[in-house]
Design brief:
Helices cover 34% and strands 20% of the residues. By secondary structure, the protein is an alpha/beta fold. Strand 2 and strand 3 form a beta hairpin. The longest helix is centred in the last third of the chain and has 25 residues. The chain is globular.
């Protein structure tokens, strides 16, 4: 049995898979906000409870925002900043009394969708999370590409491409810079754009999408700007790795309007005479990351992760 845990900013999800990838159990609980010790306790309690209910033990893989630094062995680059500077994998291993494999949540998402999701059968899959944060993961021939600094795919912390004067310098990002792709394409970025058009800045991204669907001009204009920024950002990815498919996850991936003509918009910016890259919604929805976390360990995999042996 393989257990996956998806550590998010608002919820922690656990899944248990058998060797045929059949789901045996799923559980979700709120994340103890700003509480590192509470987060460790919650994850450990979920694992213990699942194993007790299923009457078997399993390997444990964890999808987390950020990544383990190869220099310090501590978590870095997490937008859940309470995790930064912590030995999250080692601390969880100590709590559970076994090795724990930890990987960036966007990488886990990409792995899941490449193995048996919307990117199954593709050679190069770029997986994208559009939500509170903006993350990316790359899978090549069924294996995660993480890089020597474990930042491969982190497209959200580059400047917005082809930015205009009104987009500079951009909003401050938790990484310490300003104008990152993430600040434009996360939920807060869409809300700010809507507010700049005179809309209610308290509306969420999905509420803005609903308003656009209902015909509100400000919401429609905001989504058009968002889609153009998304296309510019994807064009850089296409120029760099030319993926067979781009798979979208996260809350904003559920906005149907984003997909309308998006590939054609990317083609207007990418360095090619034609771009046909499919941009599709994740097959496994918001459970893709936790499924990918479980797959960090071998066992019944058609496409092993980079860490399988």
């Amino acid at each position: 049995m393989r257990i996956g845990v998806d550590l998010g900013g608002t919820k922690i999800e656990l899944i248990a898979l058998d060797d045929s990838s059949v789901t045996l159990l799923r559980q979700r609980v709120p994340t103890p906000s700003g509480d590192y010790a509470g987060t460790l306790n919650t994850i450990a309690a979920l694992v213990v409870s699942a194993e007790r209910d299923l009457r078997q033990t399993g390997t444990v893989g964890v999808a987390s925002p950020g990544a383990i630094s190869t220099r310090t062995g501590l978590l870095k680059n997490s937008n859940s900043t309470v995790l930064n500077g912590r030995a999250l994998d080692r601390d969880l291993s100590e709590r559970l009394g076994r090795p724990v494999r930890l990987e960036n949540d966007a990488n886990c998402f990409a792995l899941s969708e490449a193995v048996d999701g919307a990117g199954a059968g593709c050679t190069v899959v770029f997986g994208v999370i559009l939500g509170t944060g903006v993350g990316g993961g790359i899978v090549v021939d069924g294996r995660l590409l993480v890089g020597p600094h474990r930042i491969a795919g982190e497209w959200g912390h580059n400047p917005l491409p082809w930015s205009c004067d009104s987009e500079r310098p951009g909003a401050a990002c938790y990484c310490g810079k300003a104008g990152c792709v993430e600040t434009f394409l996360n939920g807060a970025g869409l809300s700010r754009e809507y507010q700049s058009h005179g809309g209610n800045g308290d509306l969420s991204a999905l509420q803005i999408a609903s308003a656009a669907q209902a015909g509100e001009a400000r919401a429609q204009q905001s989504l058009a700007v968002y889609q153009d920024r998304l296309a510019r950002s994807f064009a850089v990815v296409v120029d760099l790795i030319d993926p067979d498919v781009i798979v979208l996850g996260g809350g904003l991936s559920n906005i149907d309007r984003l997909y309308d003509g998006l590939t054609q918009r990317v083609a207007a910016y990418a360095f090619s005479d034609a771009i046909d890259t499919p941009i599709v919604r994740a097959l496994h929805g918001d459970s893709s990351g936790v499924r990918g976390a479980a797959r960090l360990w071998p066992g019944g995999l058609d496409c092993p992760s980079k860490f399988a042996s």
